[in-house]
Amino acid sequence: MVSVVRAWWLGVGFMLAMLAAFAVQAREQVVLVMGDSLSAAYGLRPEQGWVALADAKSDRYTFRNASVSGETTAGGRSRIDAELARTRPDIVILELGANDGLRGLPLDQMGANLGWMIGRSRAAGARVLLVGLQLPPNFGPYAREFQRSYVLISKRLHTGLVPHFLAPLGTERRWFQADNLHPTAAAQPLLADEILRALDALPPQR
Known about the structure:
By secondary structure, the protein is an alpha/beta fold. The chain has 7 helices and 5 strands. It is globular. The relative contact order is 0.14. The model is unreliable at 16-24 (pLDDT under 50).
C-alpha cells in the first residue's frame, strides 16, 4: 500500500513539473530593446518600426522598446539599470554602436560599454542578443575593426549575435529613406523577421 501511495505522489509530482515547464514555455518572454534610431522608428510612425511589427507578429515575445534616436553605447550604459528594473526582461537586445562609429569614438570604449550592458543584463537574469552594425567603406580600417568588434564581444561573452542588422536590405536604394541611412517603412518587416529568427536561435543562459 505504501509503495502504491508513493508511486501516486511521484506521478503527481511529475505531472506538476511538466505543467510548470509547459507554463514557462508558453509564457511570452519579455524582450527589452536598447537601440538607437534604427530601432526607434526614425522618420516613421512608431507602429511602422520593426519593434512594433515583431511584437504584433510574435506570440512568443512581448517587446518593450527603450530605443532613443542618436543614442551611443555610453548613453545606453547610463540607462540600462533603470530599464532592467522597469521591464524585468527575459531577453535584452542591444542594438547600439552606430553612433559611436559615425563619431569615430574609440572602439575599446564602445566594447567596454557593450560589455557592461551585457553583464548587467545577465545579472538581471536576461539573455542577450547583440545586434551588429556596419559603417560605410570610406571609414577605412576603422570600419572593419568596428564590425569585427561585435563578433569578438559576442564570442567572449557568449551572447546571441546578428552580425549586420541591415544585411537583409543590401544596398538597394528603395529600402532607405532620403538620408540613405535609415530604413523605410517597407524595409521594417524584413528587419523584424531577422530579429525574430535570431531570438528563436538564442542560446540558453550560461
